[in-house]
Design goal:
Strand content: 5-15%
Shape: elongated
Helix content: 55-70%
Strand order of the largest sheet: 2-1-3-4
Number of domains: 2
Distance between the termini: 22 Å
Structural class: alpha/beta
Number of helices: 17
Radius of gyration: 31 Å
């Protein structure tokens, strides 16, 4: 154990001191922070380009003043003007574009054209189409000659949400949220895939580097190959965990600093008022009451909050740590064996495919688990050790039976012991072999070699 701890310490200190480690540790949080901040900057930036749009109806006035003006857009309805008369010189007249509404719009949905020099923003298109859709629906309903139609529509407007409750063994019920469970399933499965694959590949590259530089020849004179392999795997795991923890802390700090520096209070207030602006726009087009909409939003928020609190966080955290450690050790030992069997990364392709296929399949199945976590495919992929770290983490938020979790963990431990033993056999022989192209038949000989 003393020799293994020395190897772990050497692996950790050597890798942490590398310039590549420092560069990636600093640049990755900056990228993550920009991913958070840039959308906020875009939403918070004011559109200084005021738009005036000419609206032309062909032979009718059914949609006059139907599209309400917004803070940065005015709609000017022109009568007695033909489209061809203004189509070529609308920019000289000070218009951003020309909105042409054909009389066939009631029967032909795409009978509306917005002619402009620049590509119009999606928000403007949604505002125009939404206003016209509401007016067309209103005119079709008015054709039935029903009195107090607007009041009737406001009265019958109903929203139904299904509340989900889970009964425990004692008969008590707790509120759950399918949306929260699906989000946790996606995050857990994808994060497990990324960490296992990234750290496992790091082990393989480290083995190839030491083998290429002939450093391993000096090291194996003092320690056993299996001790060297285990020390390298654990050392790289500690390096990866250190880097991952620094990424989280630095990203959080950078987001706070960038939000303070790049986003003034006025921009933050504008971002916070975006949901209210959307609600007011919808209210203006549909005539719905503000109090009802606010109550629905509050109820949805309370449902999500209660669903998040009622998740089995203790079980989720414990299973994530267990499956990450065992999944990493399983695949890292296989990656270490591959690294010892080749002389450079180019030769790893033929051996990487059988190892990466289960990881990719597990990620694909994990995406489907969010829709049907109780399917037989989801069950078996969460039990098979090579796919269980990813798929089981995607199933945990959906209340997997305890016996399935225990069975998956037990098989994972047994497979891990076998994988480490097999990887040690290959590592022992391959780490000192140079200049010979390794095949699967050669790997089988190394596994069956006695001595």
């Amino acid at each position: 154990m003393n020799k293994i701890s020395l190897i772990i310490r050497r692996e950790y200190i050597t890798r942490v001191r590398k310039k590549s480690f420092l560069i990636m540790t600093l640049l990755t949080p900056l990228l993550f922070a920009l991913i958070f901040i840039i959308p906020m900057l875009v939403m918070g930036s004011e559109d200084k380009d005021f738009k005036k749009i000419a609206v032309i109806e062909d032979g009718s006035d059914l949609f006059t003043n139907v599209i309400p003006d917004t803070k940065d857009t005015d709609f000017e309805y022109l009568s007695g003007v033909r489209l061809n008369d203004i189509k070529k010189n609308f920019s000289d007249l000070g218009y951003y574009g020309v909105l042409y509404i054909s009389p066939q719009i009631i029967t032909t949905p795409d009978a509306v054209q917005l002619i402009s020099i620049k590509q119009p923003p999606i928000g403007l298109l949604d505002h125009i189409s939404g206003s016209l859709e509401k007016e067309i629906e209103k005119q079709k309903l008015l054709a039935y000659n029903i009195e107090n139609l607007d009041e009737i529509l406001r009265t019958i407007n109903t929203s139904v949400r299904v509340q989900t409750l889970k009964i425990d063994e004692s008969g008590g019920a707790r509120e759950t949220s399918t949306g929260i469970s699906m989000a946790l399933a996606y995050i857990g499965g994808f994060l497990m895939y990324m960490l296992v694959f990234m750290f496992g590949s790091m082990v393989m590259r480290g083995v190839i580097e030491e083998k290429t530089n002939r450093i391993v020849e000096v090291i194996v004179s003092s320690v056993k190959p299996v001790q060297l392999m285990l020390g390298k795997i654990i050392g790289v795991a500690l390096v990866g965990l250190t880097q991952f923890a620094l990424w989280i802390l630095l990203t959080f700090a950078l987001v706070l600093v960038m939000k303070t520096v790049l986003l003034p209070e006025s921009a933050m207030e504008q971002i916070q008022q975006l949901p209210r602006s959307f609600a007011e726009a919808d209210q203006a087009m549909s005539g719905a009451g503000t109090a009802t909409m606010s109550a629905e939003q509050l109820s949805e928020f309370q449902e999500l909050f209660a669903g998040a609190l009622n998740q089995p966080w203790g079980l989720i955290i414990f299973c994530f740590i267990f499956f990450f450690l065992t999944g990493y050790l399983l695949y890292a030992s296989l990656f270490a064996a591959i690294g010892s069997a080749v002389d450079n990364e180019t030769e790893t392709q033929q051996f990487m495919l059988p190892v990466t296929i289960p990881i990719i399949l597990a990620l694909i199945v994990a995406m489907g688990v969010m829709q049907n976590p109780e399917s037989s495919l989801a069950f078996w992929f969460s039990i098979i050790p090579f796919t269980s770290p990813i798929v089981m983490m995607a199933r945990i938020p959906f209340d997997v039976p305890a016996w399935e979790i225990i069975l998956s963990m037990a098989l994972m431990l047994l497979t891990l012991v076998g994988a480490v033993w097999m990887a040690a056999k290959i590592y022992r022989t391959g780490i000192l072999m140079y200049g010979k192209k390794t095949s699967y038949r050669e790997l089988w000989k190394w596994l069956t070699y006695k001595g």
